[in-house]
Amino acid sequence: MIRFPLDHVFHSNHFRLADLERLPNIGSDHFPIYIALTFEETAELTQAEPVATPEEEQEAVETIVETFEMLEEEKALETGNSKS
Fold it and tell me: Which of 14, 13, 31 is nearest to 23 (CA)?
């Protein structure tokens, strides 16, 4: 079976990754993740902060809009107020 890492941890550039472990399976389709970060005042001087391209930002906005539209439709179906 092929698995792709879908879970993410985002942090500000003030922190540095100290430890990251995938924990044992708990029966979910996601694995528990253990992450340890250290706060370092100089971390941002030695590691580059990722910068999204305009295309990546647009894709993120579209994904957010699509997600909200899907959630609104699911809610309407649950309450019997479907627009279709």
Answer: 31
